[in-house]
From TrEMBL, chain A:
The chain crosses the membrane at residues 31-55, 91-114, 126-143, 193-217, 244-266. InterPro entries: MetI-like, MetI-like_sf. Signal peptide: none annotated. The keyword Cell membrane applies. It comes from Phytohabitans maris. It is a multi-pass membrane protein. PROSITE patterns: ABC_TM1. Its main location: membrane. Residues 79-263 form the ABC transmembrane type-1 domain. It holds the Pfam family BPD_transp_1. This is ABC transporter permease.
UniProtKB/TrEMBL annotation, chain B:
SUPFAM superfamilies: P-loop containing nucleoside triphosphate hydrolases. The keyword RNA-binding does not apply. Keywords: ATP-binding, Cell membrane, Membrane, Nucleotide-binding, Translocase, Transport. This is ABC transporter ATP-binding protein. The keyword RNA-binding does not apply. Pfam families: ABC_tran (PF00005). GO terms for molecular function: ATP binding. Residues 16-232 form the ABC transporter domain.
Amino acid sequence: MSVLTPAKPETRPGMPEPARRRRRLGPGRPIPFGAAIGPLLLLALWTVGSATGWIDSRTLSAPWTVVTTAGDLIADGRLQDNLAVSARRAALGLVIGTVIGVVLAVVSGLSRWGEAVVDGPVQIKRGIPALALVPLLILWLGIGEQMKVTTITLGVLVPVYIHTHNGLRGIDSRYVELGESLRLRPSVFLRRIVLPGALPGFLLGMRFAVVAAWLALVVVEQINSTSGIGYMMDLAREYGQTDVIIVGLVLYGILGLLSDGAVRLVQRRALSWRRTLAD
Amino acid sequence: MATHAGGLTAAPPRTVRVERLVRGFGDRTVLHGLDLEIADGEFVALLGRSGSGKSTLLRALAGLDRDVAGSGTVLVPENSSVVFQDARLLPWQRVLPNVVLGLRGPDADARGRAALAEVGLAGRERAWPNELSGGEQQRVALARSLVTEPELLLADEPFGALDALTRIRMHGLLRELCARHRPAVLLVTHDVDEAIALADRVLLIDGGRIAVDQSIELPAPRSHRQPAFLGYRESLLEALGVQEAGR
Ligand SMILES: Nc1ncnc2c1ncn2[C@@H]1O[C@H](COP(=O)(O)OP(=O)(O)OP(=O)(O)O)[C@@H](O)[C@H]1O
Ligand SMILES: [Mg+2]
């Protein structure tokens, strides 16, 4: 090297800043509050429809009626009480279902015998909707909390199991080989390679699981229940109170959205090492 | 490199002993009764055509071929470690946890930091593997292999994916590290120059056996300009069946 050219400045005036360049493939940069746009659009449609009389208030109460009804329900404490009961059921079912789902996935993912024993029953359960199991569970467990939480647990453990198991089986065999060459103890292998490797699958399963928890909740609360949002809605049906039903529905929607958002937040934090199409 | 295993010395201590090793896939035998010995602290390079069974032999020594049919004796130290062609870092762990993955004990992190400093990556402990260049990743992998102070280092084309300049740097680093820690080394490579530059002994695998066993006696620093270097090179290339252009 005999001729050295002076270093050129990285960015010249008139050139687009490097950070602003957009990837040509892939969905592009994230939109701020992008997740809120779809629901807000739906809300706008509903408002306009009710204001113009295009939506009959007996079919679907107007948004402002729903808001005042919600206000009334909060004022007399019914909303909070029922929400607390529902949230407790959902949370309990979610936690128990997640733990069982993960344990089953690990057992069936790491051993052929485990898979032979566990996988079939879970796949069978997968084909049976929660609603179909309720009559049997009522006979076994009565109509109390135990039956409700059990139904939710069963709904939750299936997606957790399926996606965790899938993630676990998808771990690159090269990492297994690495673990073997380092002579890792099984517990270290599980903690450092298997579980983190299955984490993306597990978190995807959790996104399905939170929705499954709320769905199962709806089912159990509309059958023989004396508390909870579902019960509140069922009661409203008997009295023909559309607005209360809508409040319940909106509540379910918000809860579903919030819990999914929470899982996605965890997902982004926990998987920050990943570079994907969306980044 | 002082401890050459010359032909006449009375049996020096052996780190590796392989006898009548047979390995095959299906009805195709890749290794036909291969014998191999590596002395303590000896640096052995293994050459051979593509498909000649270099990786098969190395995986047998590493104990990674339990599902492969075969027979024979393989005696290797319990404490040996492998460097793969890809750095094979866990993408979900930062650099330091990757280095100390196989370590136990309270001083693991300190030893990991020291190993990283040795490969010139002090200060990168908290980086994610995908934030590192290919050469840096391979240096982390080297640190991970050496932090356990192995008696035997098995490396399968560890520099195969690196550019020529980075390769030369890595040669210097590897030589330095091996001089300090003195593990026995089996380095699989495609590159005749790499083999001559680094090894005490170059083996050539052909027909499922060791076909050439060539001690390399060159004063350090070894360079492509030494006439003896060129001599080794020519004979090894000839054994590999390569005709060099312009000769
Ligand atoms: N898992 C496997 N299943 C079937 N055949 C295999 C397997 N691994 C290796 N072989 C065969 O064994 C032979 C030796 O393979 P090996 O990987 O040891 O070659 P190599 O010398 O390392 O080649 P290269 O220099 O290209 O890496 C090849 O013909 C290959 O096709
Ligand atoms: Mg190979």
